[in-house]
Amino acid sequence: MTRIYIDNFNLVKNKSNLDDLDKYLIKSTTEYYMYSEDSIYKILPHKIVKLNQVDYPHKMERFDKLNVLIDKSRYTIDKIPINHIPFVHDLRKVLKREYKLNPLAEVKFVVETNCRFNKDTIKDDKIKDDKIKDYYFVLKEGIEDLDHFIKENIHSFLSILGNV
Predict the structure, then answer these.
(1) In degrees rounded to 5, what are phi and psi of residue 113?
(2) Would you write out the chain's pLDDT as a tens digit for each of its 164 residues?
(3) Quick one: which of 1, 44, 35 has its CA closest to 144?
(4) Distance from the CA of 111 to the CA of which of 14, 26, 63, 159 falls in 20 to 30 A?
(5) Measured distance CA(20)–CA(17) in Å, rounded
């Protein structure tokens, strides 16, 4: 999965414009994570898995007036089952919203928001102070280059968000 970050794009400043994206929302999921000193774990419905980060060199590109960082790094699931939970850990709940301008688009805009996590019940979906954790564009699997249509989609999202 290739992620694209836009240099000098601050969604936190323009988060009021996020409402303008509602009609493009294609998927909203809640994910649960546990962070310890040495690992990141993902909490799935019936098990906890350890995530391994696979890093690739980042690449900076410029198109039009935008500087973009292209990141092909990803996480894989460790094959060794988890037998214990680290004593010292931090639980995180992340609401992940994915937007597309049209169903056939090869690029999505993703916004990850930290949510309140009640340790007694994991069904609390209130957004914690609208704290945006991360935001980026994702290319459709198998797409490597930023062609004209992908650049056009990115520009469209940025103009909706008031950043172009």
Answers:
(1) -125, 130
(2) 889 999 888 777 666 678 888 999 999 999 999 999 989 999 998 899 999 999 999 989 888 888 899 898 999 999 888 888 889 988 889 999 999 999 888 899 999 998 866 655 555 444 444 588 899 999 877 666 677 888 889 999 988 887 65
(3) 1
(4) 63
(5) 5
What type of residue sits at position 53?
Q
Of 100, 103, 99, 123, the closest CA to residue 111 belongs to 99
Q: Is the dihedral of CA 65, 158, 150, 146 positive or negative?
A: positive
Q: What is the DSSP string of the chain?
A: --EEEETT--TTTTGGGGGGGGGGEEEEEEEEEEE-SS-EEEE-SS-EEEEEEE----EEEEETTEEEEEE--EEEE-SSPP----SS-EEEEEEEEEE-SSTT-SEEEEEEEEE--BTTBS----EEEEEEEEEEEEEPTT--S--HHHHHHHHHHHHHTT--
Q: How far is CA 46 from CA 33, 49, 78, in A?
A: 14, 10, 16
Q: Look up tokens 């323009």; give the residue.
A: 14
**Tokens found for residue 162:** 């008031």
Tokens of 43: 């909490």
Rounded to whole angstroms, the Cα distance separating 130 from 69 reads 25
